[in-house]
From TrEMBL:
Protein name per its UniProtKB record: Trigger factor
Gene (UniProt): tig
Coiled coil: none
HAMAP family found in the cross-reference section: Trigger_factor_Tig (MF_00303)
Region described as Disordered: spans on this chain: 425-447
Transmembrane portions of the chain: none
Organism the protein comes from: Azospirillum picis
PANTHER family listed in its UniProt record: TRIGGER FACTOR CHAPERONE AND PEPTIDYL-PROLYL CIS/TRANS ISOMERASE, TRIGGER FACTOR-LIKE PROTEIN TIG, CHLOROPLASTIC
Keywords: Cell cycle, Cell division, Chaperone, Cytoplasm, Isomerase, Rotamase
Recorded superkingdom: Bacteria
PPIase FKBP-type domain sequence ranges: 163-243
Length: 447
C-alpha cells in the first residue's frame, strides 16, 4: 500500500491511497478458494467445485467485497499509523480502478483539535439562590386546594363574574344558517377559561340567571372547520344557572387526599419540591455562567464539518419557528444576519462540546448504565400508554440512546469543573432567579 498526503489545511487532511493489484488479487483468490472448499453446487461434491466455475459464479461479488474491505482496512491503517483522531467519518472517493490493476482512492478527513483544558480553579462564578418563603408554600397549598374544588350554586342575587360557571343553552348561526355542533343544552361554561371562541365568554360576564343574550363573535382564520374560518357568527344564549368553584379546605383531610400523613407533612413536602425547583434554576444559571467563561477562555479551531452539522440542526428548527410565527425577534432579521448569528452559535457549541468531551476523557468521567436507565424511564413517562414502544425504539436506535446519554455526560463534566471553580452564592428574589433563567435560554453546550 502506498500513502501520499496530498493536502493539509488546518484540521483538514487529504490522502491518496494506492492498494496494489497484487494485494487485491491475493485477497480475491483467497476468498474464492474459501468458497471452493465450502460452497455446495448441484452436480459437484463438496470441496470439488472447479475454480473456473467458482470464478464464473462469484468473482464479481467477491471482487466488490474485497475492494470494499481494502478501502475500509487501508483507511483505518492510514489513521492508525499517523495517530490521527477524526471528527467525522472519512470521505472516500475512488479515483481509479481497472480489473487486475491497482486501486487508487482519495480520502478526506477532518481531525479533532488538540485541546488542553488547563486549570479551572481560577474560574470565579456567582450562583444566584432564592429562599423558599412561607408565602410560597401557602400559595402552592392554595393552588392544590383549588385543584380539588367543588362546584356550588351562586345563592346571592348578582350578575355573572369572571371565574363563575354559567350553565347555558346556546345556538349559533352563520349568515342565518345553523351548522352542526353550534348548539348545546345545559352546558357548564367557566367564564374566563378561554374554552369557547374568543369574545364569547366575555360577553356573558354581567348576565343574570334567566337572562337571554345575543353574542356576536368571529371565528379565528385558522379555525379547523373550513366553513367557520373567519366567519362572523351570532349565538343566542340563555343563562339558566350560575355556579362557583369552592376550593377544598386546607387541612389534614386535604393532605390525606394527596397521600400525606398530615398538613404539616404536606407543607414539608411542598417546601422540598419548591426548593428543588429553585435549586434547578440556580444550577442552570451557574452552568450558563460557566459555559460563557469557558467560551471566552478557550479559542481553538473546530472541524468545519461538525459546525455544519450543528448549524443545519439549528437552522432547521429556526425555519420551523419562522413558519409557525414563534421566532420572536428573529422574524425581523434578514437571512444573512440569521445565518451569521447562528453559525457563530453552532461554532461555540461545537467548541464547548469538544472541550467538555476532553475534560471528561482525561478524568475518566463515565455515564453508568443505571443513569441511562433512569433517563430512559423518565423519557418513557412522557408518553403514557406507549412506554413499551419507547423502550423498543431506544433499544433499536443507538443514535437515540447516545442522544440520551450526551446530556448526562455533559452535566457530570460540568459538575466536575464546578467542584474546582470558586463558586459564591448570592441571595436573590424568586422573580430575579426566574428572570435570569428565562434570559439564559439554552444552557446546553452541545444541544
Amino acid at each position: 500500500m502506498n500513502i501520499t498526503e496530498t493536502s493539509t489545511d488546518g484540521l483538514k487532511r487529504e490522502f491518496q491511497v494506492v492498494v496494489s493489484a497484487k494485494d487485491i488479487e491475493e485477497k480475491v483468490n483467497g476468498k474464492l478458494e474459501e468458497l471452493r472448499r465450502t460452497v455446495q453446487l448441484p452436480g459437484f461434491r463438496p470441496g470439488k467445485v472447479p475454480v473456473t466455475v467458482i470464478k464464473q459464479r462469484y468473482q464479481g461479488a467477491v471482487l466488490s467485497e474485497v475492494l470494499e474491505d481494502a478501502i475500509s482496512d487501508s483507511s483505518r491503517q492510514v489513521l492508525s499509523e499517523r495517530g490521527l483522531r477524526v471528527a467525522l467519518q472519512p470521505k472516500i472517493e475512488v479515483e481509479k480502478y481497472e480489473e487486475k490493476g491497482d486501486l487508487t482512492y482519495k480520502m478526506a478527513v477532518e481531525l479533532l483539535p488538540d485541546v488542553e483544558p488547563g486549570d479551572f480553579t481560577s474560574i470565579e462564578l456567582e450562583k444566584p439562590v432564592a429562599e423558599v418563603t412561607d408565602e410560597a408554600v401557602e400559595e402552592a397549598l392554595s393552588r392544590l386546594a383549588s385543584s380539588h374544588s367543588t362546584q356550588a350554586p351562586v345563592t346571592e342575587d348578582r350578575p355573572a363574574e369572571t371565574g363563575d360557571i354559567a350553565v347555558i343553552d346556546f345556538a349559533g348561526t352563520v349568515d342565518g344558517e345553523a351548522l352542526p355542533g353550534m348548539d348545546g343544552k345545559d352546558y357548564p361554561l367557566e367564564l374566563g377559561a378561554g374554552r369557547f371562541v374568543p369574545g364569547f365568554e366575555e360577553q356573558l360576564v354581567g348576565a343574570k340567571v334567566g337572562e337571554h343574550r345575543t353574542v356576536n363573535v368571529t371565528f379565528p382564520e385558522d379555525y379547523p372547520h373550513e366553513r367557520l374560518k373567519g366567519a362572523a357568527t351570532v349565538f343566542e344564549v340563555d343563562v339558566k344557572e350560575l355556579r362557583k368553584n369552592v376550593p377544598a379546605e386546607v387541612n389534614d383531610e386535604l393532605a390525606k387526599e394527596f397521600g400525606m400523613e398530615s398538613l404539616d407533612k404536606m407543607r414539608e413536602a411542598i417546601r422540598d419540591r419548591i426548593k428543588g425547583e429553585y435549586d434547578g434554576m440556580s444550577r442552570l444559571r451557574v452552568k450558563r455562567q460557566l459555559l460563557d467563561k469557558l467560551a471566552e477562555a478557550y479559542s481553538f479551531d473546530v472541524p468545519p464539518g461538525m459546525v455544519d452539522i450543528e448549524f443545519e440542526g439549528i437552522w432547521s428548527r429556526l425555519q420551523e419557528e419562522l413558519k409557525n410565527g414563534t421566532a420572536g425577534e428573529d422574524a425581523g432579521k434578514s437571512e444573512d444576519e440569521l445565518k451569521a448569528e447562528y453559525r457563530a452559535i453552532a461554532e461555540r457549541r461545537v467548541r464547548l462540546g469538544l472541550l467538555l468531551s476532553e475534560v471528561g476523557r482525561r478524568n475518566d468521567i463515565q455515564v453508568t448504565q443505571d443513569e441511562v436507565n433512569r433517563a430512559l424511564i423518565n423519557e418513557a413517562r412522557r408518553f403514557p400508554g406507549q412506554e413499551r414502544q419507547v423502550f423498543e425504539f431506544f433499544k433499536q436506535n443507538q443514535q437515540a440512546l447516545d442522544n440520551l446519554r450526551a446530556p448526562i455526560f455533559e452535566d457530570k463534566v460540568v459538575d466536575h469543573i464546578l467542584d474546582q471553580a470558586k463558586v459564591s452564592e448570592k441571595t436573590v428574589s424568586v422573580e430575579e432567579l426566574s428572570k435570569d433563567e428565562d434570559e439564559a435560554g439554552d444552557e446546553s453546550a452541545a444541544a
